[in-house]
Amino acid sequence: EDLFCHAIADIAYEWYSDVHTDGATLRIDACVITKFRVKLLIRKERVRRQDN
Question: Where on the tree of life does the source sit, at the highest rank (predicted)?
Fold first, then answer.
């Protein structure tokens, strides 16, 4: 599952790299992607707690 999250983030990062060539935009996008990854992990943790 974690690999799946990382794969999504990496693919998104590569896509953003292709679309936005200037570094400033890329940094912002990387931050957004990291937040997206964190949200996925938090959601997974909640589901895991409900199962127990």
Answer: Eukaryota
